[in-house]
């Protein structure tokens, strides 16, 4: 690469857009499932969680990429963890300062971003071998892919489990059985097994639309 | 019959590839095989031919459920009139129950078969027979007061997530009917337990708790007499109350060889074993219920006869069937007694063992291989 590459060359664009569908961190790489189960009961925490992961992943990718030639190979995991932990603590403090109620709902899961496999995975697989700018784009792309699935799952879980979207009730009150109607919220949607099933259904639909994702036997 | 054959042959070409109604091929196929044994034979590999294809054996299971269904309809009416303090004769009670239960059956079959046909069409295979049985099982294990749309949602969940996601009937890991019930149990708990749901249009002052729920709440003194529980004059899911009607069904299944006696037998043994163990400890009133009474309460008998023996989700090997049935008995009573939050332990026990059935089979087969290898070496 002698001459300068344009900032949004086709290759760089791929870094952002591939993780949205064909290389999605959750449905294709199957990383970060645990947090997808834990924070998707309502859309608001899921949204904040996606933003937090976005910030952490993009910055961690850039920092590790900047340091990639100076990190001794043997202790690279520890160095990565220190960087991630630092960023996560920053994010956590910001959340506590500005959106305290959501931060309380997310509770331990913000801290657990440190162990989110997507972040470790991207650092190991991409940031350690690429320049800062592509690493930044890769971080953004993967965080968007993660957030996209999180929002889809949270949308269905909140709609059917709590009858609202972003905390705004969408099912008319009069429909509920306790008000003489016929409807009842689905309690299973609030439990985490249902998140797994919703993710599974997304993977099912995704794969039946993109045949090349199906592994050959 | 000849007339039907002729009619079917007449319209057949329109359903074949390229015909006008080709998209509805699987529907036609389903109707044709309903009337006639298909004349297709296997091309290779199979050496035993039997006229009894899976559609016929499924119909026998449905027939075996008829006693429980008819009794359930009558009991629905009976419990209703009991609760409003009226005495009626046999037929008014039966017809009342009939019109309460019939819509649930129609919804269950309508939604289930509709989805089966859609999937069969999308995937280009024939409609599988599995849902004949599930479609009848689902109404039988619902409380009579379940809203119809919940039955529809649960059926759809069972067919799509429980069966089709795994590749269609015959590939499912879990029993579809129980999947539907477990879905409702966790999704709409207030409609699947408690004492308001078991009796249709119950009068407010009348306690409608099932014996099992009563016992779980510690009111062992409230238990109905043993004969009431055996004949089924108690509130409960539609088809599960009468042990007698279930035993008639079991006799049909065993006589025709469709239900596995190994699973039923070892299930009873397992239930009794756990019952006796709990009796021996006897910490509270629930643990002191005589072990054999557990066999009459709740869905134990129904689950063991009609759902544990489901040939798809049960263990396949002969030794595996004993282990599978025994563990179902053990877990059903264990969950029922030690976790009063889930009085219906049978459902959870069968689902749990459904998941473990392939593992049990694996070790039985491996054990067999090892044993025979040893013989060769010796």
Written description of the protein model:
The complex is a heterodimer of chains A (217) and B (378). Chain A has 10 helices and 2 strands; from the N terminus they run ααααααααββαα. Chain A has 217 residues and is mainly alpha-helical. In chain A, strands 1-2 form a two-stranded antiparallel ribbon. In chain A, helix 3 (43-67) packs across helix 5, helix 3 packs antiparallel against helix 8 and helix 4 crosses helix 5 (100-106). Chain B folds into 2 domains: 2-34, no CATH class; 55-377. Chain B contains 16 helices and no strands. In chain B, helix 14 (300-307) crosses helix 16. The termini of chain B are far apart. Chains A and B meet through helix 9 and helix 10 of A and helix 6, helix 7 and helix 8 of B.
Structure class of chain B: mainly alpha
Q: What summary fits the major beta sheet of chain B?
A: none
Portion of residues in beta strands of chain B equals under 5%
State the helix count of chain A. 10
Question: How far is the first residue's CA from the last residue's CA of chain B?
Answer: 61 Å
Give a nutshell description of this structure:
The complex is a heterodimer of chains A (217) and B (378). With 217 residues, chain A is mainly α. Chain A contains 10 helices and 2 strands.
Task: Pick out its properties.
heterodimer; A: 217 residues; mainly alpha; two-stranded antiparallel sheet; 10 helices; B: 378 residues; 2 domains; globular
List the helices and strands and how they pair.
The complex is a heterodimer of chains A (217) and B (378).
Chain A: H1 10-17, H2 33-38, H3 43-67, H4 76-98, H5 100-106, H6 108-111, H7 117-125, H8 132-162, E1 164-165, E2 168-169, H9 187-190, H10 192-209
Antiparallel strand pairs in A: 1-2
Chain B: H1 2-15, H2 25-35, H3 54-83, H4 90-123, H5 130-140, H6 148-163, H7 176-187, H8 189-192, H9 211-216, H10 226-231, H11 243-256, H12 261-281, H13 291-294, H14 300-307, H15 318-338, H16 345-377
Helix pairs in contact in B: 1-2, 3-4, 3-5, 3-11, 4-5, 4-6, 5-7, 6-7, 7-16, 11-14, 12-15, 14-16, 15-16
